[in-house]
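Q: Hi! First time doing this. I have a protein sequence and I read that you can turn it into a structure. Is that right? Here it is:
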Amino acid sequence: MKRIVFALVLMGSPALADGCPAAPDHEAAISDLLARIQAAPDEMTARPLNGALWELWLDAPDEPSQAMLDQGMRARSSFDYLNALERFDALVDYCPFYAEGYNQRAFIKFLREDYAAALPDLDRTLEIEPRHVGALSGRALTLMALGRAEEGQAALRAALALNPWLAERVLLVPAPGRDL
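A: Yes, that's right. Below is the predicted 3D structure, encoded as structure tokens:
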């Protein structure tokens, strides 16, 4: 029976859409990592801490959701964006309160240059996980790609407030009357 349920989830069965458990609670670890990143003296010190953040965000609620996430990421790595989008759609349907499903789906839309479609997924990611630095920086890049530079800069500043070592920091433009 477990194999049948697992197979249905992997195929994206809408019948199981409400079966996803809550995402693991990593709030304390995220707080600790963000504090350590902010205190880091340089980018090289911050880099492994940022990697540890991603490990937490990529920790899906259960085995089926982890499989969907991993399948989507493998498809993305192979530039199979259509399959990746299908996997992330299934993940979001199955686990509507798991931030990373939306974030990864937004990234696929961004890579496909469908910026307007990426933005709602980034916003949903941030509703669920307001300190998701990847979604904040992705939102900044998406807004900039949409020609909404001022909003993009504000999103980038929010991301950099959490992680001042993001590679996207080179895109920060001084606001009138403000230093970087």
